[in-house]
Amino acid sequence: MPKPAVHTVVREPLRSNSRSNRARILAAARQELGRNPDVTLEEIARTAGVVRRTLFGHFPGRAALLEALAEEASEALRGVVTAAPDAEEAPERALARFVLSIWPVGDRYRLLLALARRDLGTERVSDILAPARDEATAILDRGRRAGVFHDHLPAPVLSAALEALTLSLLESVNTGAWADDGTRTAAATLVAAGVSDEAATSIVEGVASEMRADTSEA
Fold first, then answer.
1. What is the dotted CATH code of the domain comprising 62-217?
2. One pLDDT digit (tens) per residue for the chain, 218 residues
3. pTM of the full predicted structure?
4. How far is it, in rounded angstroms, from Cα 58 to Cα 56?
5. Domain ranges, ordered by start, for the chain
6. For helices 197-217 and 91-108, what crossing angle results, to 10°?
């Protein structure tokens, strides 16, 4: 007697649906946490259009959800670093371009950084920012050797100070005390690194204009 035919179940649609649900949950979490840092997972699930069980299937708790967002932010920063400007670019322009590039990422995840310090710890936040910190340190080191940045602090120390400045400005955005598209932060960073006010403003305006032109041509 012949054996009945075995029908293979195609799992890809299920996996695709699972990925879609996960993406929707993360997007909803970014949105709702931005409105209310103490939003419940149930409220995030409703915003994402999934049932509570689906959310918990992906993220068994608040810490797991924040960790996923932290990794998402880290990947975004790594993407910016990978697309970093040519090492031959003048260091003051390179620093302006770098700050202008990472500001949208920081702005998108600014509330997450504050929550991560509370829920995941400062060490995890440091891990998230490590790729950007390393790139900034390399640019500052070039600038110090070229005589355009302060040399009274080692590059890693100056990089840490400028990182703290950026995080402080992002926190000011959280509180409504600061509004920026990245240009004011880039200028403040250049000034803090040792560039004059007038030169910093001119450099940032020039680099920002180039970046807008590149975006429109893409």
1. 1.10.357.10
2. 554 444 443 444 446 688 899 999 999 998 888 788 889 999 999 999 999 999 999 999 998 999 899 888 888 888 888 875 577 899 999 999 999 999 999 888 887 877 877 888 888 888 888 889 999 999 999 999 999 999 999 999 999 999 999 989 988 888 889 899 999 999 999 999 999 999 999 999 999 999 999 877 75
3. 0.82
4. 5
5. 1-60, 62-217
6. 70
